[in-house]
Amino acid sequence: MPSDPLPSRRISQVLHEGFADPAAGPRRRLAQAELVDDWLTGLWETVDAPASGAALAAIGSLGRRDLGPGSDLDLVLLLDPDAVDADGAQRLASALWYPIWDSGTSLDHAVRTPVECEDVAREDLLAAISLLDLRPVAGDPDLVADTARRVRAQWRREARRRLGDLVVLAADRSGRYGSLAHSTEPNLKSDRGGLRDVTVIRALAESWLADHDHGIVDAAARTLADARDALQAVTGTAGTRLGRADQDAVAALTGHATADDHHTVLAEAARAVTWQLHRAVRAAEAAGARSATRGTGTERRPALTRLPHGVLVASGEVTVDPGSPDRLRDLAAVRHAAATGLPLADATLARMASSEAAPLTPAQRDVLVDALAGEHFAAAYEALDVSGIFARWIPGWAEVRNRPQRSTVHRFTVDRHQVQTVLEAQRFLSRVSRPDLLLIAALLHDLGKRADRRDHAAEGAPLAETAARRLGFGEPDVRAVGLLVREHLTLISLATGRDLADPATLHDLLTAVGHDADTLELLRALTEADALAAGPAAWSTWRADLVDHLTDLARDALRGTAPAPRTVLTPQRGVADAVLAAVRDSGSAQVIYPAHTEDEPISQICAGAPDGDGVFAAMARVLVRLRLDVHSAVVLSRHGVALNTWWVAAAPSDLPHPSVLRSALDRELAHRDRPDARVLELPPAPPPRTTEDTPVVTVLPDASREATVIQVNARNRPSLLADVAAAITEHGLQVRSAHMLTLGRRAVDVLYLTDQHGRVLDPPTTGRIVSALMDAAAT
Questions:
Q1: pTM assigned to the model
Q2: Closest CA to 231 of 202, 195, 179
């Protein structure tokens, strides 16, 4: 036996070659598979294998000749039991598997006879799908061909019985992973519309129950596989989750100018795969149903249900009567699909796609609004969108379709987020006077999120008005939709980023809604629906309390009634008094935690200390050292005591004991005049990577008549608030209140500042503190 019969390159090296030409994906993968085949053939020639009755076969990505840099090898050693006994099988397997492991390659292996492969294909759904890719690599080709015939015959015999299991398999993965097309960090393999769904589509075709558009699926599979290969080359791992940190490099390696451009291409491919899977499953189910009634004497003509406006339901699909008026008929079909979850027939979608997209009449508009209220609207939208219909109906939709969102708060692309906002808005339809305007505003509220758009709410308002006008709304309603889109961030921004006790905050909200109670209710509903659609990080009990508090203030003002006493964002009276008394008695810092419910994600900390310069900054540094994320703060000075209340993102059970915080605060205050003692024990922030990381400090001139309000919008880091507080202390200013909001990796801190006498800052002082805050935020 030769001493070194194998190629000098390791298999892992072979898999990572060929990325100089990103456009050569399919050719590269084929060439890599051929190189691996050669490697394995060389290995086979070194083992003592019989001339017939034994073969090495590939399944999985190697079987499909679709290897990526992180692929493992799925190999089956096929043996004829009449040609190789058990001992011989063991020796042959060891001679094959150990050199492959030694080559540094991940290996999934099995030793089976053709009959055993047939049995496995009958009992194990996933194994059956995998064995459909069986391909000879070395040894007896007739043995592999016989096994492949057995497996395919078994698959086709069991296809109808297994169809339900296939559907469940696809649905289960969708529930656990989500949609690749609409994800901001998609899993290229496992998400709905990913490479695993391509495998299921092809398996259905092998069953002869349903075929698919091979050109569309093959092109989408190439796009997804190119992205997978580039990702694995960039990361050096076998992972298939395309995280934000790798998206720019992967886009460049696949030949795209930006990560957003690449994401749009991936989303298009994933949506095509999802739709082809949907169509294949429906066709397979229909074939199974026809087979079940064949020969039984059962009436095989499909039941037909006629509905208003020419809508028909036949064979579990929504279709239309060709003799009915076109546009109203089509919209009524969409309404029925959105209400029932029944799919729109392919012929109906094709007819809609070829029809003229004219402005809607009021009757047609009302039917569309009814469709938006359907609980299955998302599924209906996907069918319309993948057929190119929705973008023809809604002006401006094409520009946000498949557009990713770079904020970690968001879980969906822009278009899918708007659809999700419609679904979330449905819960508020009974609470507003114009549910139609709420649904339309939810559908259109982010049309301004296009490339190079800074203020998407303001820039989206005229786009939404244009769309609403085309959808059949009159001018007063068009203006109302434009107002809701323009102001859809106003309520939550004011509630979480401004002092609710300041009359200017309420004034700004009332101005935004035009002093109209109905508009206020619509904006409140849209605010929550938008946040819920974004994701869990965008809405919480704490934010809901703040939004409700400000909304209640506005309701009271519009009714002309005096506001009821409220405690939102004010210290609990008894706790504040207890801290004040304890500080005056002891002359040192005191900390009390007000009572909370255990499931509340925001906790309140009331801390007091003898008043003086630097108390606010010292408290901020202590909270940073204890890893407590500050959301808001109210700063008071009473009878020579600085009484600061902090709202932090932590459950009560996660807070340190009050004595720990009190001792840390005493130590910090004792050394507050020493610059060396102010250094936080935290790693320095990395330098800005893009212009978006540059801090922006803005004076809000009309936000308050009682203080100078300054907003610091900067890249978030643990020490940001402490650095900002230190800058304020160094300039001898007072903080009346502070409000923090974290959006992805950005922090937005709104500070209400006064001079030492509690007065609004003069222009020179304002200029100096703005410059200092810029430096502090950029540190």
A1: 0.72
A2: 195
